[in-house]
Design goal:
heterodimer; A: 683 residues; alpha+beta; six-stranded mixed beta sheet; four-stranded antiparallel beta sheet; 24 helices; flat; B: 293 residues; BirA Bifunctional Protein, domain 2; 43% helix
Chain lengths: 683, 293
């Protein structure tokens, strides 16, 4: 079967877009060539090309397909629409029974003509995250960067197509059989006739087209260089991927870090090296930072890379010297004396300054502190200092270092270490995979920071909508939920939300904020596979704003429902509820107290007595979060309930007996619904 | 082995010679303070409309908040950009750019030259384009952009714009670690001899002394004058006022008196001016008969 090779050769494609583009090309080609049953699809990508090879059928045979159209009795528009859809004319349809029928003939088509027909449109529609116009012809064909060559061969022969369309010259690009070697080491076009020749030919011309192979060469190369010095490379898969997308011919090299900079904070070195330069950090055997870095050049230089290494070392020196300037200058000013400057920084036009926000967070952190085992003074201090590093030179230069620098500067100023840690870690968790803070002072500030941001934006009506959450309030809510759960914290959330009111333009809608946080909890638990009906049942009781308690209760109810007692109890509850629903519709409501004097059967009395015991017991159990005991209470109703339904006819002919028994069932439901709205439990 | 590296001024002269040989008009710096060579009307205005255009020039560029009192080896509040614009962008633009590096002593065969994604955007000019930072051995030695929009107007013909940070490039070529140690003229004058004192004085001016009330007033003046000139259909003088407003904003920013929200508002005001000037210029362009390319 014929082999197809397509290569789109352009000026340098951003590293982060290459893999996705190769995937997109595979997806589009699979769809476009479906009739040719493509197999063995392989995609390739690199700095200057995305490519795909596949085996396809040589042709699609002629075929006829019968398409049934609208009824002959249908309005004329139905037939017109049907004809338009199939590109057919009135003459082509015949009547068959009550229907119009189209006999579609598709002629045989060879693979080359099908591919040549499909590709221009496919390339025109190709979705890059950002694409551009170029050239002087006014062509509207866009690509991520100027597209310079299109190689398209089938079984060794060029599949001829061009990008021209009407007036648009498509940059004069025509498919051919030439590719291009390494930009510097082997530039220039050369012809190929198969995918293997293409791959081998490019390898000889210093281009590795397989991104995985480039990645492997980078990883192994720098690991070997590190090992020569008894060092190892800090694991960084994301950086490996990126670097593999920046080079066609990876040449691993090692550079030295000037000892004068080794005392810079690790995070600062990391930003300069990784973010700015795409260098790999090296570690000593004990895990400490080593005075070396590794990187991959795209060039085999005649001097063995000496000039390239020297150049990279110089660049890093310059970067570190810049960082040192900020590091030294920032430490000359105490963090505490920077707080006032936050009054001049707008946090949000409607919410005032960062200074005002810090005041709110501070109050809130102080209020939360005793609830989470933290010293209120330390929590308040940490909150007060938490944003001060925004005014430092280092954070101005490297915004991603906010928090981390605050901690260093706080420690330098002699602040309490728990305060310094909170300044850094109160942003956590920054995402679903980020760790939750466990230090008490940090927990207080982290919760305060997040509650404040949600309450503040809700207070000015900036709530997340379907797709939009510009202030990352969902992330903040999820952070609150995770901190509470993982720390098993008992917090009166509604009260804390209301505390934010000071210095806000309007008091935050506490119920809405609470509902928002609860909703995030539900989403999170559902994602973990928890029973959402149990959650809904617990959260529906309302009034509760202690997430940890609600979650513990949900877990207990889930457990109870898994037992035989629980299952029977649930059956009885449903039965009671059903009867009540039906009878209430007839002559309800039946919601008075059951009168023991009217009981005639022992099962009635027994159930009533047990209900009285449980009802007396439950409120305290719930208040004190003794949920195991509460579950025991509920389960204790089961024997009497079972016996009741076994022996007692609710709809007794005597209206007084009937009403009393309905009232008793109402009491059953009411008692259980104190714990959770069991009517929401499914199954 | 290697010939002596070119002096700072020699780098400029060689770039002039190189780009002149590519048909560029060699211009002199524009005589209004600006933050980058892109603000020069030879780039901003000429990038618009269908007429072919090729120009190269040095533009002194002022970034008030980058001042370091002459103490930082790499940062300056006043530096030189070498700017090239070619409209339409030739298909060989990347190769031309590499050849220009070779002309000033950076042989691509010995170094590791890379094109690293850099989507250029100037919010104040309402301009954006796609291109790269050009890296030489890990150092950014230039910025290469295919303009897509200027003054909020999609360009009729995409230009290629190349910007060289001359000091940084020269430091690399001359193997100098401190900008003030650059050999300026090959005859004993260093960059520090020419500019160190200015860096010290201007840093103080930018960060400590500049009269912010006056700057804010001048900003409003420039804004008003720009609008008035646009009403008179004088987009080029109007554009001078737009550049001035932009620089005044940079000075106010360096003095730290602009809050985050105000910042966005100031940028928006300058962009409005730039947009008006670009529209005005483009309108005048289409009235003039197109000169032969």
């Amino acid at each position: 079967m014929p082999e197809l090779l397509l290569e789109l050769f352009s000026e340098e494609i951003p590293a982060r877009m290459q893999a996705k583009a190769a995937e997109e090309l595979t997806r589009l080609m699979t769809a476009a060539l479906g009739a040719l049953a493509p197999t063995d699809l392989r995609s390739f990508y690199g700095p200057r090309r995305i490519a795909l090879s596949a085996t396809v059928n040589a042709a699609i045979p002629a075929a006829s397909v019968v398409e049934r159209g609208p009824r002959t009795s249908a309005p004329e528009q139905a037939l017109t629409g049907f004809l338009r859809k199939h590109g057919a004319t009135r003459e082509m349809v015949t009547q068959e029974g009550d229907y119009w029928v189209l006999n579609k003939q598709s002629p045989a088509q060879d693979a080359a003509s099908l591919i040549a027909g499909a590709l221009p449109g496919l390339l025109r529609r190709f979705a890059w995250p950002k694409s551009m116009r170029w050239g002087g012809s006014g062509s509207l064909f866009t690509w991520v960067r100027p597209l310079r060559r299109m190689l398209c061969i089938l079984d060794g022969a060029v599949v001829p197509f061009s990008l021209a369309e009407g007036e648009d010259d498509g940059h004069g690009l025509h498919a051919g059989n030439e590719t291009d070697g390494h930009r510097f080491m082997a530039p220039g076009g050369f012809a190929v006739h198969s995918a293997s020749e293409w791959q081998a030919g490019l390898l000889a011309k210093r281009v590795i087209v397989d991104a995985g192979e480039r990645r492997r060469r980078v990883a192994e190369g720098i690991a070997a260089l590190a090992a020569e010095r008894q060092l190892h490379v800090a694991d960084d898969p994301g950086l490996l991927d990126e670097v593999a997308g920046l080079v066609e011919w990876p040449v691993p090299l090692l550079g030295r870090i000037d000892a004068a900079y080794m005392d810079l904070p690790a995070e600062v070195m990391q930003v300069s090296m990784r973010v700015n330069q795409r260098y790999f950090a090296l570690r000593n055997a004990d895990g400490s930072a080593a005075p070396f870095f590794a990187f991959a050049a795209n060039m085999e230089a005649p001097d063995g890379g000496a000039a390239i290494v020297a150049g990279n070392e110089r660049v890093l020196r310059a970067r570190f010297s810049d960082a040192r300037h900020f590091w030294d200058a920032d430490r000359r000013v105490k963090l505490a004396s920077r707080v006032a400057a936050l009054d001049a920084i707008t946090f949000h036009a409607k919410l005032g300054t960062q200074g005002a926000r810090v005041q709110r967070v501070m109050q809130l952190a102080e209020a939360i502190a005793p609830m989470v085992g933290a010293d209120p003074a330390l929590a308040g201090r940490a909150a007060w200092l938490s944003k001060a590093d925004l005014t430092t030179g280092m954070v101005g230069e490297f915004p991603e270092l906010q928090g981390a620098m605050g901690r260093y500067y706080a420690l330098h100023d002699g602040e309490d270490p728990s305060v310094a840690d909170a300044v850094r870690d109160h942003y956590a968790p920054k995402g679903p995979s980020d760790a939750v803070p466990t230090a008490h002072v940090t927990i207080a500030v982290a919760l305060a920071d997040k509650i404040d941001i949600i309450a503040s934006f809700f207070a000015i009506g900036e709530k997340p909508t379907g797709g939009g959450d510009p202030f990352a309030l969902r992330r903040a809510a999820l952070g609150i939920v995770r901190i509470i759960r993982e720390g098993a914290l008992r917090l009166p959330l509604r009260k804390l939300i209301s505390l934010c009111a000071a210095s806000l333009p309007a008091p935050p809608p506490a119920d809405e904020v609470l509902a928002f946080i609860v909703d995030r909890t539900r989403v999170q638990l559902r994602a973990e596979g928890a029973r959402h009906d149990v959650l809904d049942a617990v959260f529906a009781v309302g009034g509760g704003d202690d997430l940890a308690a609600l979650l513990a209760l949900s877990a207990q109810i889930g457990d109870l429902l898994g037992t035989t007692d629980g299952a029977s109890l649930m059956v009885a509850y449903k039965r009671a509820a059903n009867i009540l629903r039906i009878e209430t519709a007839k002559d309800g409501p039946h919601n008075g107290p059951a009168d023991p004097a009217v009981f005639v059967l022992p099962e009635e009395g027994a159930l009533h007595a047990q209900l009285e015991t449980v009802s007396a017991d439950l409120p305290l159990r719930l208040r004190q979060a003794e949920f195991t005991a509460a579950m025991r209470d509920l389960a204790s109703l089961r024997p009497q309930l079972d016996a009741f339904f076994d022996k007692v006819t609710v709809n007794d002919p005597d209206p007084a007996l009937r009403r009393n028994r309905l009232n008793l069932l109402h009491q059953v439901r009411g008692t259980m619904d104190r714990v959770a709205d069991f009517s929401r439990i499914e199954g | 082995m290697n010939p002596a590296p070119p002096s700072f001024q020699n780098i400029i002269l060689r770039l002039h010679a190189f780009w002149a040989s590519q048909g560029c008009v060699i211009l002199q710096p524009y005589d209004v303070e600006m933050g980058a060579g892109t603000f020069h009307p030879a780039t901003t205005l000429r990038a618009l409309g269908p007429k072919p255009w090729r120009a190269a020039y040095v533009q002194p560029s002022r970034r008030p908040s980058d001042g370091r009192y002459g103490e930082n080896p790499n940062r300056l509040q006043h530096y030189y950009q070498y700017q090239v614009i070619m409209k339409p962008a030739p298909d060989t633009a990347q190769a031309l750019m590499l050849a220009s590096y070779a002309a000033i002593g950076l042989d691509p065969a010995l170094h590791d030259i890379r094109f690293v994604e850099d989507d250029w955007e100037s919010p104040t000019l309402g301009a954006w384009g796609l291109g790269w930072e050009v890296w030489c051995d890990g150092m950014e030695v230039g910025q290469f952009t295919y303009f897509q929009q200027v003054g909020g107007i999609p360009v009729a013909v995409p230009s290629f714009e190349m910007t060289y940070g001359l000091e940084r490039l020269a430091m690399y070529i001359q193997n100098v670690e401190r900008v003030y140690d650059l050999d300026f003229n090959g005859a004993g004058v260093t960059y520090g001899d020419v500019f160190l004192r200015a860096e010290q004085e201007y840093s103080r001016h930018n960060f400590e002394v500049a009269d912010t009330a006056m700057l804010a007033r001048h900003f409003v003046d420039a804004e008003r004058e720009c609008a008035a000139l646009l009403a008179e259909k004088l987009p080029m003088p109007a554009y001078d006022q737009c550049i001035k407003a932009s620089h005044l904003f940079n000075l106010l920013d360096a003095r730290g008196v602009i809050s985050v929200t105000e910042r966005a508002a100031y940028i928006g005001r300058v962009r409005t001016l730039a947009k008006g000037c670009c529209e005005g210029w483009l309108a005048g362009e289409t009235l003039t008969p197109v000169l032969s390319a």
